[in-house]
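Q: What would this chain look like folded?
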Amino acid sequence: MALPVAILGSGNIGTDLMYKVLRNHQLTLVGVAGIDPTSDGLARARTLGIATSDRGIEAFLDEHPAVEVALDATSAHAHAEHAPMLAARRVRSIDLTPAALGPAVVPEVNLEENLDAPDISLITCGAQATVPIVAALSDVGPVRYAEVVSTVASRSAGQGTRANIDEFTTATARSLEILGGASEGKAIIILNPADPPIMMRNTVYAEIGDMPPEQAAIAVRNAVSQVSAYVPGYRLVGEPLVADGLVTAFVEVEGAGDYLPPYAGNLDIMTSAAVRVAERYAKGQAG
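A: My prediction, written as structure tokens:
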């Protein structure tokens, strides 16, 4: 039986999520809730015969009590209001906002130990793109320092992203340490105004000491392979460079183009991660 999920937020991210959920056989989209009755997301949902609401989350949940998981693509402020309402109804939250109320999760790194959490945070697009690589290296040996540079198309960065740049860098850097296992982490984000827009690009630098170079390269390749299983546009650009105790990996993220443009890989990796987590919940329910 497919897991009944709801999407909160009918903006770009919520609408992209809608298309990803609809084609996933392990999930059933119960409905989409937003606050703007004229939004393109709600209009598209109605055209597809999906239940919609613009009257708030409580009214939506009253009408759709079967919902077991909510994918929250609203805002940090809104999620802080949604979380207790959802918890009171035993609806689990997958949070795509910067609210960071629940444990930080990157699916291929630490989802299994957080499956029972009522509310998980997907941190940032930079963390989703780079933490798996740092964590894979840490599984081989000590990573003294990890630095990531995420470059995204300016057009794909909305007002929320721009207003929370400092929080983005802090949260991503912290995740390199807490989830990635690096002794020290640093994150930098660049909004590139190039036209035509570029795809999301991430550079990962890691100080690995005397870790065998071939083992380091294999760890990076394996991590990329795992993430690309649910983000098909996630790929290495060239082979990892390993020399003098330093590994450098270049990763590009091309979006699936479900609703957001393919260059918006920074947003697509978040929606893909959310669906990945929901899939895991569905498997747990079935098993």
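The mean pLDDT is 95.
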